[in-house]
Amino acid sequence: MKILNAKICSNGQIFDGEVTVDGERIASVTPKETSSSSDETIIDAKGMYVIPGLLDVHFHGCVGYDTCDASKEAFDKIAEYEGSEGVLAICPATMTYPEDKLSEIMDIAADYESPVGADFVGLHLEGPFINPNRVGAQNSDYVQKPDADMLLRLQERAKGRIRICDVAPETENAIDFVEKIKDHVASVSIAHTCTDYDTAMQAFEHGANHLTHGFNAMPGIHHRKPGPLSAAADAEADVELICDNVHIHPSVVRLAFKLFTDEHVILISDTMRACGLKDGCYDLGGQQVEVKGNLATLASDSATIAGSVTNLMNCLRCAVKTMKIPFASAVKAATHNPARSIGVLDDYGDVEAGKYANLLILDEATSGLDPVMREEILDIFLEFVENEEHSILLSSHITSDLERIADYITFIHNGRIILTETKDNLIYNYAILRCSDKNFLSLDKEDIVAYRKKDYQIDVLVSDIEKAKRKYPKIIIDHTTIDEIMLLLVKGEN
Fold first, then answer.
1. Report field, pTM of the whole predicted structure over 0.85
2. Which of 65, 114, 144, 327 could form a disulfide with 79 if both were Cys (CB 3.0 to 4.6 A apart)?
């Protein structure tokens, strides 16, 4: 099989070329088209980007399942969902638990191979060797001192599949722990820590090479107390970033890319089981987590962020579109760098001969175009469909394009059709009622398409604005957008 006319993005570089695939692996990558035999399968990328499948080295679960469920079903469902979202290799993380519970997870991981979706390439042991004063969403009841013998026992149960092990370097025997385990895992990572700069540097000098969810659950950078982040930069260690626009401000993400460069930044999602599901209350490591929109916090402490509900592909989108990280750098941080950090770069992380052909073609027709070119392309589409015998099927997340040229809109979420309507009906007839609790209780259920509770009001989606105005004259009614409709259908209730 050949992929032609592609913009190949790999290891921080973008170039025009083609990719030849033989079986499960990439056979060759060439900067221009070569002759093809007639029996080859040809995919014309038509100038779109071809990138390696994403690799997430730090997340806990999704779609109602968690790595710590310690079941093959959980691993299967996680791999299936991640693969459907462009994350084609996974190294999920465990939580802070006693050895017997962690051993159950190791037993599942030892011989696990994904039947569908993302390839399982290892485990990230986030706990229990952390500082009890910086547990975040981890359960402090199970925190314990660094124990190299325990780590080695777990690694034996997992048949060597623990790729990253976390530790707070200021805890008792931590430096000795780092020294003893460094040759038994791909990365030793500083995490959930109160460490100062000097202690962090000592850990890096003895074999640590990684920083777990940078800026979170650790001291920040202070001009007189630089802390672990400055130590990681001086040691040229890798640093994980959660680019969900919740955990880290966009300016700080840009600062991190400047400080660590795209050689050492690793994009992660840190998702928990609520990822891919509606708002609500979910379990994380034995603690209840409240999810509202893209924010997950401990139910017992709303000020404590408890993981993420934004998958790695959407973190990548956010890094590029919202945080203004260069596309090639962001892709490298979600592919090449994580593969290198866990020791699987021979097989994953690049569009390169010999590696698995886990490839993505980014397929939004106008997303990479400047405004002038987008306008020209849309004009071509409009001219084409003036002929009533012509139709265009446009798959896009850019709703402004849909509002301009579409006649009908079908909204698909998690492989399921949520809504099919004419564009005009969505724009002109659908509306949102801004309700108090009392207002909401007065509504006829048959009028409610979906609703979502907010802090001070309930947003209710209705499909007939004129009817709603007649029936509920005292309730504020606003015209809505396609974006708002989609958000309510996915995040709301019905």
1. no
2. 114
CA distance 481 to 483: 5
Amino acid identity for residue 49 in this structure: Y
Give the DSSP H or E segment for 78: helix 72-84
DSSP code of 67? G
Distance of CA 208 to the CA centre of its chain: 25
Please report, as a single letter, which amino acid is at residue 256. A
- End-to-end CA gap in the chain: 45
Amino acid at position 341, single letter: S
Question: Residue 329 and residue 334: Cα distance in Å, rounded?
Answer: 9
Smallest CA-to-CA distance from 323 within 279, 257, 270 is with 257
Provide the sign of the torsion angle of the four alpha carbons 371, 374, 376, 379, taken in this order: negative
- Structure-token match 């990681």, residue found: 232
Contact 240, 187 (CB under 8 A): no
Chain centroid to CA 183: 29
**pLDDT digit string, tens, across residues 275-286:** 988 888 887 767
Question: Which residue carries 């800026």 as its tokens?
Answer: 215
- Determine the Cα–Cα distance for residues 138 and 168; give it in Å rounded to an integer: 13
- For 215, other C-beta atoms within 10 Å of its C-beta total 22
Q: In the chain, what's the furthest Cα-to-Cα distance?
A: 75
Sorted by sequence, the CB contacts under 8 Å of residue 421 that are 6+ apart come out as 408, 409, 430
User: How are beta strands 25-30 and 295-298 bridged, if at all?
Assistant: unpaired
Instruction: Report d(CA 73, CA 76) in Å as an integer.
Output: 5
C-alpha span between 69 and 82 (Å, rounded): 17
Q: d(Cα 169, Cα 193) in Å, to the nearest integer?
A: 7
Give the residues across from 408 on adjacent strands.
422
Residue 374 confidence class, pLDDT cut points 50, 70, 90: low
CA distance 286 to 274: 14
144-184: per-residue pLDDT in tens? 999 999 999 999 999 999 999 999 999 999 999 999 999 99
- Beta carbons of 175 and 154 less than 8 angstroms apart: no
Beta sheet of 301-305, edge-to-edge order: 280-284, 287-292, 295-298, 301-305
Q: Looking at 235-326, list the stretches that DSSP marks H as alpha helix, in order from N- to C-terminal side.
A: 250-260, 312-321
